[in-house]
Amino acid sequence: HDSTCGGGLRWQIPFANNGYDYKNSIANGCFFNMGARLARYTRNTTYSDWADRTWDWMWNIGFIDNKNYAIYDGAKVTNGCKDINRAEFSYNNAVFAEGAAFMYNYTNGNATWKARLDGLIKHGMEAFLPKGIAVEISCENAGTCTTDMLTFKGFLHRWYSTITQLAPYTAETIRPVLKTSAEAAMKQCTGGALGRQCGFKWASGVYDGKTGAGQEMAALSAAMSLLIPQAKAPVTEKDGGTSKGNPNAGGSGDDAQKKSKPITTADKAGAGILTILVLGSACGIFGWMSVGV
């Protein structure tokens, strides 16, 4: 997090990494989501302040479209983040929507956060769940999804299902759509020798011939999202959560902190002799190499 572009997180932390000069929505979305979750869990306003600041930065810089709540991928810092990459990915929408739901719940149904949540869900449904089936619009139809993009629809399902717990009024809108999408995902899991491998193009209704960890994760997440009505809502520090550490975790037995034996004169003498031998050998080798025989 720095002052370039007026704030916000960079995509990469090490300056030598590809992407260090890029500020993007997923980095800031995870930060926003974490702040919102911790604010609800702890009731500590420091976390909610950071969530507010992150949302405001995203809104003001234009990564969140001020008209339709589309969330664009990001921009390079070299021109003040003005040349925005307008590619949209489902997990960007979902991570902010879930974060907004946590803030809605934390603020006891604040009207501002409700409007933001509703805007994100409306756009998410229209863009990524047309006809009720998840589609990764920026790459799926063109067949250009990278390995990580193959997992995004799974995040969409998981985070949208959690929204229905935090903002129960959304359940009647979201859950039927997730059910339709999950059913489509399962119907195309017919690949491989055993006929159980999953592809990526759920809306096609047939296995697309390509499978892998990303496709399997996304399909599993879609199925798991249907279990949300039987799951408990995320807890807080006041109603069942615990964040206390255990300093003894990972240790066992009476000798977990066994002390080393005291160093004797013989130990020191032996170490000295070994050091002399190693240095002598190194000097001999370097000398031989320098002669050039």
Features:
extended; mainly alpha; single chain; 2 domains; Glycosyltransferase
Concise account of the structure shown:
With 293 residues, the protein is mainly alpha-helical.
Supply Rg.
27 Å
Spatial shape: extended
Strand content: under 5%
How many structural domains does the protein architecture include? 2
Number of helices: 8
The CATH topology of the largest domain is Glycosyltransferase
What structural class do the secondary elements suggest?
mainly alpha
CATH level-two architecture of the largest domain: Alpha/alpha barrel
H and E order:
EHHEEHHHHHH
Q: Could you give the count of β-strands?
A: 3
Largest sheet: 3 strands, antiparallel
Give the % helix.
40-55%
> Low-confidence segments, ≥5 residues, pLDDT <50?
none
* Average pLDDT figure: 92
* C-alpha termini separation: 58 Å
Across the major sheet, the strand order is: 1-2-3
Catalytic activity: Random hydrolysis of (1->6)-alpha-D-mannosidic linkages in unbranched (1->6)-mannans
Protein name: mannan endo-1,6-alpha-mannosidase
Region (Disordered): 234-262
Keywords: Glycoprotein, Glycosidase, Hydrolase, Membrane, Signal, Transmembrane, Transmembrane helix
